[in-house]
């Protein structure tokens, strides 16, 4: 699990094994050993990886499946905008999941989501 997370994060951020090794002051073979499961990073390097990739150490270790976003340097207004955007994504995801359901199984919540989506689209 740790090996997969490190590789996925490295690739997500566009680092080669060599580039990541230079960033951390290690050899490329050390990074390769982490990614193949031959060894695991020390606590020091787990912390450095979490800072570099902006995820928690728990995420790298596979103990937490959620990802986080560091927003400490944003203004209140920017945080509010992000919060509203996340809410819209959640509504959209619920709506699209509901649309995949059998129409005969429409629940009151599904109908309400459809109405909300129509209101949102109408106000755009």
From TrEMBL:
Keyword presence, Chaperone: no
Ranges for domain HTH cro/C1-type: 6-60
Any one GO molecular-function label of the UniProt entry: DNA binding
Domain of life the protein comes from: Bacteria
PROSITE patterns (UniProt xref): HTH_CROC1
UniProt keyword annotations, A-Z: DNA-binding
CDD domains linked to this entry: HTH_XRE
Tagged with keyword Acetylation: no
Pfam families hit by this protein: HTH_3 (PF01381)
This protein's name: XRE family transcriptional regulator
Gene source species: Emergencia timonensis
């Amino acid at each position: 699990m740790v090996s997969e997370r490190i590789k996925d994060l490295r690739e997500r951020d566009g680092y080669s094994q060599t580039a990541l090794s230079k960033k951390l002051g290690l050899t490329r073979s050390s990074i390769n050993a982490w990614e193949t499961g031959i060894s695991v990073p020390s606590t020091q390097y787990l912390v450095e990886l979490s800072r570099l990739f902006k995820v928690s150490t728990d995420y790298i270790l596979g103990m937490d499946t959620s990802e986080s976003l560091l927003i400490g340097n944003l203004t209140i207004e920017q945080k509010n905008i992000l919060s509203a955007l996340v809410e819209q994504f959640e509504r959209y995801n619920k709506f699209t999941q509901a649309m995949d359901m059998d129409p005969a199984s429409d629940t009151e919540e599904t109908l309400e989501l459809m109405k909300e989506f129509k209101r949102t689209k109408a106000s755009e």
